[in-house]
Amino acid sequence: MEPRPLLELNVQQAIASILQKRRWWIKWQDAELRRKWLDEIEPQLLQQSFAQTLVGWEHGCTPLNKLNELLQQTSEPEASNNRKEWLQNIVTELSFDRDDDDDDDDDGIYDDDEEESDEEEEEGLDGQEDTSERSAEERALAKKVAGLESYAQVKWTWNQLLLHEKLRALSVETWTTENTRDAVDSAMELCDPTLDSRAAEFLLAVRSGVDVHTALHLPVDSAVLDETRLTMLKMHCEKIHRELEAVRNYITKVIDQIADNEGLSASLRPDETAISPAGIDGVWISDNLVSEATAMALMKEVARLENVADEQKDWHPNSNKQVLDLVHPSLFCCVFGQTMRVAAALDPTSFATPAEQMVRLMSGGVEKVAKPRDCNTAYQWIPTDFLVQEAEG
């Protein structure tokens, strides 16, 4: 299977979040509710995109490392002035930190196997010819922004702003290696727990009409970002906003197409069985395929497995106690050459109750399970035989 772009996977997950809502095809016809669902997707999509951006990024640390030198200075007021100047300029542009970079491209982020063509560089923002009446300076900035990865630029800016915010809370005269280490380490590793959410909130604020300076929560007289940086940041926001609009339109078309292809409409009666894709490859979902009585009976029996002492609960490994294994197949696997099996599949209709059938399966083994000729494993999960009767669908 070919690798799929992260954006495609994120959009597929967003589509799945809609398809898994109860009787979504009816609610989807309500324009206001549809807009609400799409609005809810935007912050999730933004946070996912930011979380997947600059992972393992190791560049841009030179200004941060310089703080160690400043902390060794003791001559006042020179030491404090140097620290203030460093803090004022700490919101650096995203760069590779390469000594051999003599041009302005070091604030970009490109994959090694990707290059901007001359034709693309001559075009405007997002590859479209710039026919607006913007100034030459603005057109130059637009061309520069078009060649940069906007999520990376916005995330890096917020990473540096958070560092500035933390260190500004301390008087520069009191700075030490100990009381600045956490903030600096967090900036170096881009691991502030609020980084992705703050960046997403910023983009949504600008999208709603808030100006960039205000959305950054900068003091009115702040000079941390000059007008050029603010203009470029606004352009990056506009690029991402256009992507969000394209995603909304795509999701709308996909949902409409699924409803049309599967014959899902408001005309379906509540008691009429409806099955739709779940938004995950090969998975389908239904709200009423299983009757309410059967579902209640199942939940009642499952509750007996759930309501056990905490020390007896079998939490799935690495699930952070989010997935509780009630009866995990791996605990009752088939061991080739040892596990006994019945001679043939049993017809469920020949038993009065499922419990009677279960007892027959567990105690009626007459032969050992043979290992398939092309099998290299010693065991497998036990498959479940089931009978589908045509009359019952």
Strand and helix map with partners:
Layout: H1 6-19, H2 24-27, H3 31-51, H4 62-72, H5 78-88, H6 118-121, H7 136-146, H8 150-168, H9 177-189, H10 195-207, H11 212-215, H12 227-261, E1 275-277, E2 284-286, H13 292-306, E3 314-315, E4 324-325, E5 334-335, E6 340-341, H14 354-363, E7 367-368, E8 379-380
Antiparallel strand pairs: 1-2, 3-4, 5-8, 6-7
Helix pairs in contact: 1-3, 1-12, 3-10, 4-5, 7-12, 8-9, 8-10, 8-12
Give structural notes.
- Helix 1 (6-19) runs antiparallel to helix 3, helix 7 packs across helix 12 and helix 8 runs antiparallel to helix 9.
- The protein is 47% helix and 5% strand.
- The chain folds into two domains: 1-110 and 118-266 and 276-286, no CATH class; 328-393, no CATH class.
- Mean pLDDT is 84; it is low at 98-126.
- The protein has 14 helices and eight strands.
- It is elongated, with a radius of gyration of 30 Å.
- It has helices spanning 6-19, 24-27, 31-51, 62-72, 78-88, 118-121, 136-146, 150-168, 177-189, 195-207, 212-215, 227-261, 292-306, 354-363, and strands at residues 275-277, 284-286, 314-315, 324-325, 334-335, 340-341, 367-368, 379-380.
- The chain has 393 residues and is mainly α.
- The two termini are 33 Å apart.
- The strands form four sheets. It has a two-stranded antiparallel ribbon.
